[in-house]
Give the backbone structure.
Amino acid sequence: MIDAAKRGANAPAIPKDDTMDSPVQRRKRMSVQELPGVGAATAEKLEEAGFSDVMAIAVASPGELVEAAGVTESAARKMINAARNNLDMGFESGEAVLERRKTVRKLHSGSKALDNLLGGGFESGAITEVFGEFGSGKTQIAHVLAVSCQKDNPSACAIYIDTENTFRPERIQQIAKGAGLDPIKVLKNIKVARAYNSDHQMLLAEKVEDLIKVEDLNVRVVIVDSLTAHFRAEFIGRGTLAERQQKLNKHMHILLKLADIHNVTVLVTNQVMAKPDIFFGDPTQAIGGHVVAHASTFRIYLRKGKKGSRVAKLIDSPNLAEGECGFFIVEEGIKDL
Ligand code: GTP
Ligand code: MG
């Protein structure tokens, strides 16, 4: 599901929400229940399996829907076709894509080198994954973005889903002062939630939609720090891997949708584990495997460098060259070497 949905703002025909000022006028979005062959019970089963809107159905395979809702394959195909027709998911011109790319915002990190590595900053409409060992600076980058998204816009908000209890308002205050912003105002515009387990974490990600739609918050960045810690701790042993990956996939899909539909920057942090079978090159790899890797549009590998610096390496990006840069973590946030 994620593979088909892996987009970023480069991608074809992203159906925008009715509330978005989309360059292309789009027809009214159907609800899942309005699709052919979907009654209340089927809609509920679909919802439970993560197919909670027409977009999710449109990018699903018939087999996934058969499994999720117990419908026949031909019914599944009809649903998918109706969803695709409703979303106008055909081809569009490259020019239209370019036009839409103009709505992409880029959040700055305080380090020009790091921003340049990402083509100018942390893009909206995409998920950026920062992974690396403990102390490599993942949480620091998360704090910096929660502040920097507010720099050019006093109503801008950051959402911070904190799974490891490492969000520090004091740190936000330091970074805000460094950016010349009022620390208390900045803190007011950061909505923090502590996630106690993976289910809670997933629920919090789903709630972000309400903050945007119901509470009308001008959300510019959604941070999940750490994306994988709970999943890693709760699903131990080989037998649980499939279930873990399925849940992570659903979680990533929700985040991807937030990025896409509301044009927000999504930042997720991820740990690394040792690869026991590697003798050459870097013996570490990110947790979460292909599910996380494929859903992330940009992936940055962080490691400790010389003299207390940090090194960021861009691993995977649709339109940028792989590269590396260094930066320092300082009281004001992060800065160039
Ligand atoms: P885990 O969550 O444990 O996996 O690590 P992480 O990658 O999130 O590390 P984090 O971002 O918390 O980085 C911690 C490091 O940031 C510390 O080791 C410090 O070196 C540095 N750091 C944090 N606050 C400050 C500060 O105010 N000034 C300076 N100079 N460095 C800081
Ligand atoms: Mg951390």
In short: Confidence is low (pLDDT under 50) at residues 1-26. The chain has two domains: 14-86, 100-336. The pocket of magnesium ion (ligand 2) is lined by residues 138-139, 164, 166, 225 (CB under 6 Å). The two ends are 40 Å apart (CA to CA).
